[in-house]
Amino acid sequence: MAGITDAEFLNKVIPYGFDVVTLGGYSLDEKTINASAQILNRGRKEFHFELDEIIPHITSEVALIKKNNPQVKVSANVRSATPQPIAEASCIDDLDIIEINCHCRQKEIVTIGCGQELLNRKDLADYIAYVVDNSKTEVSVKIRANVEGIDTLKVAQTIEDCGADYLHLDAMDPNKLDADWDILEEVCNNTNIKVIGNNSIDCEDKIKKMYDCGVYGFSIARSIITGKLDFNI
Ligand SMILES: Cc1cc2nc3c(=O)[nH]c(=O)nc-3n(C[C@H](O)[C@H](O)[C@H](O)COP(=O)(O)O)c2cc1C
Known about the structure:
By secondary structure, this protein is an alpha/beta fold. Helices cover 38% and strands 18% of the residues. It has a 7-stranded parallel β-sheet with strand order 1-2-3-4-5-6-7.
């Protein structure tokens, strides 16, 4: 979660039993860094670092997590207009997973063709394949389901065909305050990629429901910041 999930935050969360934690989202290139500055200016939380600061910053954040939790995999969720800075960020010491953010829907990010807007780009497959082919870490792609005009299953299959290791699927249902369980099941049944199911987990029953859909793993965001996570994983 941009502006929230730094190493200090994640080190507090790890004792609940997480085996993977995600830093970021971070903006890696000039265009997305400018967009982050605009988002900050209108009062929303963001991580904002200059071009020459961002890689050293992520490097030190990864080290802070690994120092006390060497067994935990660390992922960095990142945005960039072009794939090259993402592949470069994958070289960060001890980073386990680089996650391409095809999820952010803040207007400043979408306007420059990044975040969720990547799903509309004709070069989406080339972009992901470049990161996969040039990264030192595993590659995850984070998307949101039910984006208007986007066929979620088709995008999931494209991501699998590009060779990504994980599909991190925010199964958001715009019409209810619950995950879209049908789309999760449809994607799991029709792909072989490791699907990390996400959205609205706030109790153990929902974790079970997610596994029943066929996910490889699950992730939790808002329940952690609202303090609703009252169970161990
Ligand atoms: C304040 C806030 C910031 C977020 N920032 C990011 C981000 O930077 N990158 C990303 O991929 N998802 C981001 N998300 C989305 C969450 O990671 C997650 O996909 C979404 O909240 C649904 O999961 P949940 O129901 O467990 O919260 C953010 C969500 C919130 C509430």
